[in-house]
Design brief:
457 residues; alpha+beta; Beta-lactamase; Lipocalin; 9-stranded antiparallel beta sheet
Length: 457
């Protein structure tokens, strides 16, 4: 009797498909660089970089290049707050004014109602970024400018009225961490989070000492034009909201500490509270720091990040012990699309497990010479092997799992098209034959011959 493949091994067998899809997405969307890390259960099963850290110098992206992870900083800030909470040094139901006496305004009565919990869940009703125009001027504020804005009033809604994302709120949380711990935000994050987790490639803000380690950030790519660089901007006092830089491997270490059973930072009751939906809206759900994202058959606790020149996305799936991290160095980098695409492939593989598993009497053909990219006048196809089956996707698709086809082996290098989708010639035969140069050619009765397709950045 054939032993059933574990879910983890089945997911690992989908890595070839994921790798090639990511490679093609980087190419076809002209993304400068993409760094990807995938962790399952107890190991990093995939870590790779595509493209360039710097386009002009043709500097290849490596796992040592730092990315501005922007609002991922909020996860570190929330983790620090909850660590202080666990140590009974503060309560998340304390008012902000208990720790920041200057947090008061005769022009803004709502401020007296705001508690730490409201800042963590973006439900304070306060301004998103304040009035310093730092996203346009690239000059982030210092503490006096924050205090002056509080005095003038910063509320747009009443507390708990709606989810209103606020970098300003997480800037205040950074100040609370400094007040309660008696340390700078930088020192507290380093000593209490980065060092215990051995995160050696994470910094709390860009500066002269780490600038050279960063990938270059880029503006939007317009047709027939080259991308333009965006200079690195220090987040200054707002680093607790948006200042951190990191790598895929370091972020995986951070998320591992948020798995149940890992008590490096704090016990599970804290993690459950952080990852439980605390505030809902039609477009987003929030825990304490964590954004809760719905997946086809699960949910992910994580965050996204957008900083001039960088778009990033990451998250964990708690019950499957999966972590996915996507970092891009372009302001229109499709980090969320890639993050969802990978998770959707895993979900599809789990759903089709019975089809993918080899039958006891099944003879599995050697597919190493036929998997890869093929092209014809209709476009590009990507063939891969998952478990015992040949599968195909359209590598241009944002959701590659949606129209994935799982072929049944007939004989030799002949396969039968599946019953779904109905427009893809169900039940008809496809075959791989030798071309003039001995490279395989894909032949089907619908679109004829497809030759191997190769590309480079």
């Amino acid at each position: 009797m054939t032993e059933k493949t574990s879910k983890k091994e089945l997911y690992k067998q989908a890595i070839h498909l994921i790798d090639n899809w990511l490679d093609y997405q980087t190419y076809i969307k002209e993304i400068p660089g993409v760094a990807v890390g995938i962790f399952i259960e107890d190991e990093i099963v995939f870590k790779k970089e595509y493209g360039y850290a710097n386009l002009e110098k043709k500097t290849k992206l490596t796992d040592q290049h730092l990315f501005r992870i922007a609002s991922h900083s909020k996860l570190f800030t929330a983790t620090a707050i909850m660590k202080l909470y666990h140590e009974e040094k503060l309560s998340i139901d304390d008012k902000i004014s208990k720790y920041l006496p200057w947090f008061t305004s005769e022009k803004d009565e709502n401020l007296r109602n705001i508690r730490i919990r409201h800042l963590l869940t973006h439900s304070s009703g306060m301004t998103r970024d304040g009035k310093t125009a730092h996203w346009r001027t690239y000059e982030f504020p210092e503490i006096k400018e924050i205090m002056d804005q509080v005095t003038e009033g910063i509320s747009y809604f009443e507390t708990s009225e709606l989810l209103k994302y606020s970098n300003f709120g997480y800037t205040l949380l950074g100040q609370i961490i400094e007040t309660v711990s008696g340390q700078t935000y930088h020192d507290y994050i380093r000593k209490e989070i980065l060092e215990p987790l051995k995160m050696e490639n994470t910094v709390t803000d860009v500066n002269e000492s780490n600038l050279a380690r960063h990938a270059t950030g880029y503006k939007v790519k317009f047709p027939r034009k080259e991308r333009e660089q965006i200079k690195h901007i220090p987040a200054r006092i707002m680093h607790s909201a948006t200042g951190l830089s990191s790598t895929t491997e370091d972020l995986i270490k951070f998320y591992q500490a948020h798995f149940f059973g890992n008590n490096t930072l704090f016990p599970d009751y804290i993690k459950r509270e952080m990852q439980r939906v605390q505030f809902k809206s039609k477009m987003a759900n929030w825990g304490l720091g964590f954004s809760i994202t719905s997946l086809p058959n699960n949910e992910s606790a994580g965050h996204g990040g957008g900083y001039p020149g960088f778009i990033t996305r990451s998250g964990l799936i708690q019950d499957q012990k999966i972590i996915v991290v996507i970092l891009t160095n372009a302001i229109n980098g499709p980090a969320l699309t890639l993050f969802l695409g990978i998770n959707n492939i895993f979900d599809k593989v789990a759903k089709e497990e019975e089809k993918l598993e080899p039958k006891p009497e099944e003879k599995i053909p050697d597919m190493k010479d036929i998997i890869g990219f093929y092209e014809n006048d209709w476009g590009i196809s990507l063939f891969s092997q998952i478990s015992s089956k040949l599968v195909v996707i359209g590598p241009s698709d944002d959701n590659p799992a949606e129209f994935i086809q799982i072929y049944k082996h007939k004989e030799g290098l002949k396969f039968i098209t599946p019953k779904e989708p109905p427009f893809a010639s169900p039940g008809q035969e496809i075959e791989f034959i030798d071309g003039p140069d001995k490279e395989k050619i894909f032949v089907d009765s619908h679109r004829g011959k497809s030759n191997r397709f190769k590309f480079s950045y």
